[in-house]
Amino acid sequence: MDFHELIINRRSIRKYTDEPISPEDVKLILESALLAPTSKSARAWQLVAVEDKATLEVLGGCKPAGAVSVARCPLAIVVAVDSTKSEAWMEDASVAASYMQLQAASLGLGSCWVQVYGRFTADGTPADQFVQETLGIPETCSVLCIVTFGHADEIRKPQDTEKLKWENVHIGRW
To answer: Which of 17, 19, 29 is nearest to 100 (CA)?
Structure first.
């Protein structure tokens, strides 16, 4: 599948089978993040790969809605960046997370971005603080998201290119 087909067919998957992800595929997913470009080559991202079911259950409580897939996936990767080493930490983390999702899709795996930064747990604790404390992530590392991975247990239709918002594209000037 070429890259264009890959981005048309990649969809957020929130339901996974119990089948584990092979160690080789996990390595490729992590490697794709490490290959992502960063501002000033800071490479300040930090990745925490979590496969332990009990820990995934706890992380699923990072916000009251939209994190159910964390508790039910075979692999979640927390994407954080040492914000003292990169002023563009959010952008760097976003690119790394996106690269991992594209790598997973190319391997036939599903994934879903679960936003953490700027969100809150049910009791009002900042979600990034909750994730930091759960996993022992230093305070200098801002957590952007958790990306879930697994073998899809749902079928999603490809993107409909007829519905692209070409009116949002401007050439030369607005």
So the answer is: 29
